[in-house]
Amino acid sequence: MKIELASSYGFCFGVKRAIKIAENAKDAVTIGPIIHNNDEINRLNLNFNVKTLEGIEEIKDEKKAIIRTHGITKGDLAELQKSDIKVIDATCPFVTKPQQICEKMSKDGYDVVIFGDENHPEIKGVKSYAVANAFVVLEESELDGVKLSQKVAVISQTTRKVEKFMQIVNYLMLRVKEVRVFNTICNATFENQDAVRELSKRADVMVVIGGKNSSNTKQLYLISKEFCPDSYLIENEAELNAAWFEGKNLCGISAGASTPDWIIQNIVDKIENFTQNS
Amino acid sequence: MKIELASSYGFCFGVKRAIKIAENAKDAVTIGPIIHNNDEINRLNLNFNVKTLEGIEEIKDEKKAIIRTHGITKGDLAELQKSDIKVIDATCPFVTKPQQICEKMSKDGYDVVIFGDENHPEIKGVKSYAVANAFVVLEESELDGVKLSQKVAVISQTTRKVEKFMQIVNYLMLRVKEVRVFNTICNATFENQDAVRELSKRADVMVVIGGKNSSNTKQLYLISKEFCPDSYLIENEAELNAAWFEGKNLCGISAGASTPDWIIQNIVDKIENFTQNS
Description:
The structure is a homodimer.
Chain A: E1 2-5, H1 13-25, E2 29-31, H2 38-48, E3 51-53, E4 64-67, H3 74-82, E5 86-89, H4 93-107, E6 111-115, H5 121-127, E7 134-137, E8 151-156, H6 162-175, E9 178-182, H7 187-202, E10 205-209, H8 215-227, E11 231-234, E12 250-255, H9 261-277
Parallel strand pairs in A: 1-12, 2-3, 2-4, 4-5, 6-7, 6-8, 8-9, 10-11, 10-12
Helix pairs in contact in A: 4-5, 7-8
């Protein structure tokens, strides 16, 4: 069986940047998991004494707080800045952007529609910048019956699929006079999605690697599954099962934006072992 | 055979308004055909001495110039206003709107994409208000290879189909960071299109009435033809053919926004005659 990596996968610019910031900070705490990858978070803890807190209320006498790639709410940021702790911002610049757009549009009198998961920290952060109406939706039908201004600004969670974003925009075009669309889906997301689409059309088994709570990884997995029914989403090599690869010709590999290369390498090594032993 | 009129058809607000303006003006000239219907233009000429000029260069010693529903270019309007002639503006307010948006967006640094027919007077007028880049397209592919700003405003000819407008917006979402969409397709267009769609699904012969140079009529005809292959586009009763109705059960009728009721009535009468004589 051949193993092929997608032409684009894994760590994006914002994640690489955040990890470098955390490694340099040392002895710091992060507000929420800095990236959605437990193994990498454990590594940062072991090697750099960077600990993960659930929220700002857990801060005690720590000296340095790192803001996670997904950002935090405007309120939490203000609290941190008022306190004595040193704030180190590792928010991905591609997440800072929709936060700024949300605030600006909201102040300019637009209702803001955010395409994303309301429980995801990125979206909680982005929404917190609205000063008036902001609606978080995953489906355009969630806006049925919602009273909207005739001026609506639309932004997307950075890791969403653009096709669904278009459907929401098209729906809004029929409902309001002005739809101001900011395509805030990040390029890394596009590239990883394009690459997994291409590879999953050719592969007869696909392994997508990433955190189970990682939005962009889930999107990669869904795309993969669409074209290759034998697709598996795993966090690390412990979850691999030799039976998945029996009788297969091409195993495709992709990984979410918060998956470090060392995890991917461990997985590739183990799959190769399966094949050699069979 | 039963004859059924679409639930919405014919004269729109802007056309009704323009005809009233022309009837009240009397002894005036219009710059280009005031609406796209030759029979109605002849009636205004005969009954109210309102004459149609091709352009402002044909003006001689006339006292009053009426601006057509589709509007004219910013340059022509300025020329008229500088001259001694009294300018009476019958531009449909739904056309004035995209003219204003085009000017404002263009001044605010947006490239403007206009979905429409570059040879149509409405679009010539709208485009003339741009102070920088403005691209008139009927297909998104016409923008392939065109260098665009990262901020694009999009407007539509008032009489276009919204599905294609959406395709152009979706294309732009993939190319630039901000797409500012103004849905300038007028409601009358939507309503007439919805109604012809519904009726043509049930009818086995459709007659769509309107000027051959009328954009909104052409759209109605295309929708009708999609669902009812035996669809005919005519300007008046002289073009009717008895054979179209032989063996048919339901004849649907729709008419463009510039088709007066008296023409529609003549056509319905003649079709009824066919049926009674057969």
